[in-house]
Amino acid sequence: MIISHNREKIFNMMIFFAKNTKKCYKTKLFKLFYNADFLHFKETGKSISGLDYVAWKMGPVPADLWQEFKNPKEDFKKLVALVGDEKACQIVAKSSFDDKYFSERELKILEKVAFIFKEANTDTMIESTHLKNHPWDKTIKMKGDGAKIDYTLAFDGENDSLTKEEYQIKLQETQETERFFAP
Question: The pTM is what?
Answer without folding.
Answer: 0.90
